Amino acid sequence: MKNKKGFEIPAVPAVLLSIISVQGGAAIAKGIFPVLGAASTSALRIVFSAIILVVFNRPNLKSLSNTQWKAVAWYGLTLGAMNLVFYMAIARIPLALGVALEFIGPLVLAMAGSKRVVDFLWVILAAVGIALIAPWGNNGLDVIGVLLALLAGALWAGYIVLGGRISKIMDGGKAVSIGMIFASAVVLPAAIGNGLLTHFKPHMLLSGFLLALLSSAIPFTLEMSALRRIPAKTFSILMSLEPAVAALSGLVFLHEYLSLNEWIAVALIIIASAGATMKTKNPVPES
């Protein structure tokens, strides 16, 4: 993200700020989810985000080339599907398990094509940490929920790849803004079919605005900025901090205490993310 003087948040802090923002949005979503349901909450998040970003960035739709239209369409559709599928997953299985399973997608992406032994070390540490967080011993696990979480992970990996590509041919703010319009086209039909028009109340507007700002508008813009300057695999490992920040947020704001294994998992994920950060090299000079 840049201001008028050309300042841009460095890639690694941009990713970290994105994670913190998402956790703030998650706290708001927790209050909306029981009332609206998975699809409608996802639509509230995406549609409000699209409005905020379009108003703020004012993208010139007429200036896009055919290549840019195709790229931003796939980016937005993937983004919308990822959010919708993940919300549907955590409606069936615990949030911690949903997050852990979703991370399999980015971790597979991080490992793909790696040629350095040290890269495998960070991925393995993060994977072990995520495995420790996940409640694998739950015998009453919903199979459909598990499959949806895995699908969300695959879509997340696709979002990372597409985001990296589109950031090289379009301005980040424009790409995210237009992408959110396409994402809305994915979530709105599902939300309307799920009773959004019936259950939505005017007092939910503020919650929807805050949810969109913290969960989508701010983090997706920060991620787009970061993806332009760091490799997709490094971005994937850095995003492994998400469960760690979620655990700490749960302790501070929700008084959710972790077991020893879960704290070990948090430590492993932080070590893996720190290791990836130390090895990061900017492939694109900062402007």
What can you see in these coordinates?
- This protein is mainly alpha-helical and 287 residues long.
- Helices cover 76% and strands 0% of the residues.
- Helix 4 packs across helix 7 (143-166).
- It is globular and about 50 Å long.
- The termini are close together.
- The model is unreliable at 280-287 (pLDDT under 50).
Number-wise, the strands total: 0
The main pleated sheet reads as: none
The stretches of 5 or more residues where confidence is low (pLDDT under 50) are 280-287
What Rg, in angstroms, do the CA atoms define?
18 Å
Count of helical regions: 13
Shape: globular
Order of helices and strands: HHHHHHHHHHHHH
Quote the distance from N terminus to C terminus.
Answer: 12 Å
- What fraction strand? under 5%
Furnish the topology, listing elements before pairings:
Layout (H helix, E strand, L loop, with lengths): L10 H26 L1 H20 L8 H25 L4 H8 L1 H8 L5 H17 L9 H24 L5 H22 L2 H4 L4 H24 L4 H7 L2 H13 L6 H20 L8
Helix pairs in contact: 1-2, 1-10, 1-12, 2-3, 2-8, 2-10, 3-7, 3-8, 4-7, 5-6, 5-7, 5-11, 6-13, 8-10, 12-13
Short description:
The protein is mainly alpha-helical and 287 residues long. The chain is built from 13 helices and no strands. α3 packs antiparallel against α7 (143-166).
Give structural attributes.
287 residues; globular
